Amino acid sequence: MINTHNDALIANYGTFLVAPRDSLEHANTAPFGLEIDWHIDPLRAGSGHFLDMLQTLDGLTFGPEGMPMDKWVFYDCSELPGFIYGFATPASALSAEERQLFKVEETYTGPVPLSMYIAIPMVEPGAWFGHNLASLNRVLPHRELHHLGTITKALALKAYRVERFVGATQWTSKALFIHTKFGPLELLTTYTPAHSIHETLTYAFDVSDDSLKAAYGDPSTALRRPTPDLHLSSEDVESMKAMQAELEAGAKYTLCGAAEARGDALHHPIVRVAL
Fold it and tell me: Which of these, 161, 145, 157, lies nearest to 183 by C-alpha position?
């Protein structure tokens, strides 16, 4: 098990994995020694209520930002081709208000999800694309779910046996504070017209136990980070476009670490890698 100050979450909550049963042989069902408590098979009708609650979890996390997923997206793009891993609590441990929040059926006694990380395998062997990270840390502050999103992603990448990770998010997203915990991120795009939101970055990193442990909070693990030579404002679209043109011409950029908030904008530390 990873040495971390976040052990209280491990002690208080269980974990789940959503995947067809035939996919389980490809997963690590005890990432860093933490056994998965609940397996949810999307091919079984009895899994429907839990999967409904996953959509509720997504809506609670992303609804205010206008990016909740339709239920078919979960099935077609997540539950069948990939994995969904997260933390949960038994329905019996919920308060009346929490049961109402999740619309928990009166007779339901199974797990209720508090976080999830979805990733989808890519064509490149060992490469996975991060699809969705959701956590109720802010929605249920009384449960003290600090760092739950980071812990969920770290354990999920271990459970999925990811070797190279690719993700996409917006320069304004608070989720970048989580993603940069996994180490320096190679930038594949800085401006992405293929995405609904053009001010999206695409990033990648090679997954190692050290990168996962460092993100998870293991105090014995530290990652080396390059010194930035520029800071990109989350509002500077023209610089995003200019960097994108340089990437397409062969330049390489690395996002070094977490952004610094200056007024209403985030300023991201970036280094241009010499070729």
Answer: 157
